[in-house]
Write a structure and sequence with these properties.
The chain is mostly beta strands. 7% of the residues lie in helices and 39% in strands. It has two helices and 20 strands. The radius of gyration is 23 Å and the shape is elongated. 21% of the residues are buried.
Length: 232
């Protein structure tokens, strides 16, 4: 029986046991038994080309750059209030219709317009890429505010007996975040699922990666990742 605790600020990361390999027998299994990480991946970023918002102030078209970060309608409004220095009557306000789960753009100044044809912010918020000038403008579809990160998949290179759809995989554990952005996620499997190991002699190295449900690597922006595995 072996307990393995890994910490990293990188994703993916690799652990090398070449100088002290983990000895195995034909019946060893491995499970993820615990861990912690931060809900620190961003949904608005220059990397995603969705950090631009263009608006017309009655005289000029102006393009503003939203700082990279984790945003919902509240955080977007906080940024716009600071930007316009108007905390009671901001000319552009975001809201969400909870019944339809669609974003709204509320334009409080009739001279203003919002152009969502610049960049990909429209896709995150569920709008079409066009100019909006109504008092209340509704998104045409449900917002993708998580930017497609709806489930986290933890991959471990020594795992066998795991499948994603009909393809063999190295996934050892999956979960959906259940806390607000910015908080710490504690991983505490109630009943760890033990899977056979790919090797039966020794483990010389392990590669760990965390992806979304589409197998895209998640950027945790340098925050610490702690994972605990148990081999029995």
């Amino acid at each position: 029986m072996v307990l393995l605790t890994f910490e990293s600020k990188q994703n993916p990361f690799e652990i090398n046991f070449a100088n002290n390999p983990i000895k195995l027998n034909n019946k060893n299994e491995i499970a993820l038994t615990g861990g912690s990480l931060w809900y620190s991946w961003q949904n608005i970023s220059s990397d995603f080309l969705n950090n631009k918002l263009k608006y017309f102030d009655g005289t000029n078209w102006i393009e503003l750059t939203i700082p990279d970060g984790i945003y919902d309608e509240t955080e977007l409004n906080n940024y716009l209030e600071e930007y316009f220095q108007k905390y009671d009557d901001c000319p552009i306000v975001f809201d969400v219709n909870s019944a339809t789960n669609r974003f709204m753009i509320i334009i409080n100044d009739s001279t203003y317009k919002v152009d969502l044809s610049v960049g990909k912010l429209y896709a995150l918020l569920g709008f079409n890429p066009k100019i909006y000038d109504e008092r209340v403008n509704y998104g045409s579809r449900i917002a993708n505010i998580t930017n497609d990160i709806d489930r986290i998949l933890i991959h471990c290179s020594v795992v066998s007996g795991s499948y994603k759809n009909n393809q063999k995989s190295d996934i050892i554990y999956t979960f959906s975040p259940n806390i607000s952005p910015g908080g710490m996620i504690n991983i505490e499997p109630f009943q760890p699922k033990y899977l056979p190991l790919e090797r039966t002699d020794s483990i010389f190295n392990m590669k760990i990666s965390l992806t979304d449900q589409l197998n895209n690597i998640i950027n945790f922006n340098g925050e610490n990742i702690t994972l605990e595995f148990f081999i029995k």
